[in-house]
Design goal:
alpha/beta, TIM Barrel, M1 Pyruvate Kinase, Domain 3, Pyruvate Kinase, Chain: A, domain 1, 3 domains, six-stranded mixed sheet, 21 strands
């Protein structure tokens, strides 16, 4: 199952991708990570998909990462007495905490946190920003607002308040139940929505207690103000451009994407670019040229993975979406400019033994035209440091920990293999050569650059660089 590319593909599962046969097709076509969206589907649906994925993993002998995406808090309007309501520019309305169905003059908004955080002249966006209102006045129980962008509103439409920090935990009671269930299934990554501060991630990590890696979804402008702290606290980052694009001007999102990806690379954290990447393929067998360019741009930016949402979950062409995404990635990575960009964005290694070894491994692999870099790791930290260097060859991650192997399936350039740890130097070389040949990463006569730590099996002790012939 060696991929002919470095950047990984995340495929969201749903009605269009729920059978064993379709999962197999998506995996063979190039999906490396499968996302379970807990905003949709039942626990039985998710249990069945995890079971199918683990059977697929066993059949192919290759680790598959499963990412569970928590729903998080959803801010929504109440209901309306006479159905959908057309708002006109300049119209004045009052929002309140009364659950009585709304009228032309008042609208139920049953979220006290919004009233606490509201500010005069602030914006209130409805239905992904299709309707925009300006806050005129507020108190603990009411918000008076004027319509700036007209449109139709109806029952339970979503509400956004850009540039406001809401006094709201991103982990709802539903999320806690879903989290316990997902961890019992053995998911590898947990993604948290509505992150505003680093302590939001810290709260989730306490609940996860090391049973999975934790990913922060950056979809709130408030999170950008605490970007470095959130990245430091997280195991990975998702650039949720759809929600960011609602609460920020569209022109702000592309440079922000580049800034987040650059910060993740410096910190050695895997990053996913998500939302609307091939959106037209929900109903079309081919993407627009603009969408192809969007995927390629994320690849040129150095992302670890790109994600399909509705395209693979509920679209008409899930297999075609994965296939074309694989082709776009490989085309971008074969461009000489891609390698120049990866090299130009490389930062000086930190003054640690592990960083020095990882930087030297990349240089050796390049100078010697090695077939691959091999990392021995328990926790994955050695492999992450090697991936941060963005070498021009694949990274064979050998780990005795199956959970680590699965988590590393998300990381740029990494080919994870669950294998017994080395016992001594001779065993280290012999095992690396054997697995590299078996996984078709190297052929006879080629060289491997191997990194490991002594004593063997000690987490975080990368201190060896070895060059071996196949």
């Amino acid at each position: 199952m060696r991929r002919q590319r470095f950047t990984k593909i995340v495929a969201t599962l749903g009605p269009s991708s729920s059978t064993p046969e379709r999962l197999r097709e998506l995996f063979e076509a190039g999906a490396d990570v499968f996302r379970l969206n807990f905003s949709h589907g039942t626990h039985d649906d998710h249990r069945q998909r995890v079971k199918q994925l683990r059977a697929l993993e066993k059949k192919y002998g290759h680790p598959i990462a499963i990412l569970m995406d928590l729903q998080g808090p959803k801010l929504r309007l109440g209901t309306f007495a006479k159905g959908p309501m057309e708002l006109k520019k300049g119209q004045k309305l009052r929002f309140d905490l009364d659950a009585t169905p709304g009228t032309a003059k008042r609208i139920p908004l049953l979220h006290p946190e919004i009233f606490k955080a509201a500010k005069p002249d602030g914006l209130l966006l409805v239905d992904d920003g299709k309707v925009r209102l300006r806050i005129l006045a507020h108190n603990a129980a009411t918000i008076d607002a004027e319509v700036e962008v007209a449109g139709t509103i109806s029952d339970r439409k979503g509400v956004n308040l850009p540039n406001l920090v809401l006094p709201l935990s991103p982990i709802t009671p539903k999320d806690r139940k879903d989290l316990d269930f997902g961890l019992s299934l053995g998911v590898d990554w947990v993604a948290l929505s509505f992150v505003q501060h680093a302590h939001d991630i810290a709260e989730l990590k306490k609940l996860v207690a090391g049973r999975a890696a934790v990913m922060a979804k950056l979809e709130k402008p408030a999170a950008i103000d605490h970007l470095d702290e959130i990245i430091e606290q997280s195991d990975g980052i998702m650039v949720a451009r759809g929600d960011l694009g609602v609460e920020m001007p569209p022109e702000a999102v592309p440079p922000l994407q580049k800034r987040i990806l650059a910060a993740c690379r410096i910190a050695g954290r895997p990053a996913i670019v998500a939302t609307q990447m091939l959106d037209s393929m929900v109903h079309s067998p081919t993407p627009t040229r603009a969408e192809a360019s969007d995927v390629a741009t994320a690849v040129y930016d150095g992302t670890d993975a790109v994600m399909l949402s509705a395209e693979s979950a509920s679209g008409d062409y899930p297999l075609e979406a994965v296939t074309i995404m694989d082709r776009i990635i490989r085309a971008a990575e074969s461009d000489p400019l891609y390698r120049r960009l990866m090299d130009a964005a490389r930062h000086e290694p930190e003054a640690t033994t592990a960083d020095a070894i990882s930087a030297a491994a990349r240089q050796c692999a390049h100078t010697l035209s090695a077939a691959a870099i091999v990392t021995y790791t328990n926790t994955g930290s050695t492999t992450l440091r090697a991936a941060r260097e963005r070498p021009d060859v694949h990274i064979l991650c050998l780990t005795p920990n199956p959970d680590t192997a699965r988590r590393m399936a998300l990381t740029w350039g990494v080919h994870p293999v669950h294998a017994e740890d080395a016992h001594n130097f001779a065993d280290m070389v012999q095992r690396a050569v054997k697995v590299a040949r078996k996984e078709k990463l190297a052929e006879d006569g080629e060289r491997l650059v191997i990194t490991a730590g002594v004593p063997f099996g000690t987490p975080g002790a990368t201190n060896i660089l070895r060059i071996a012939y196949v």
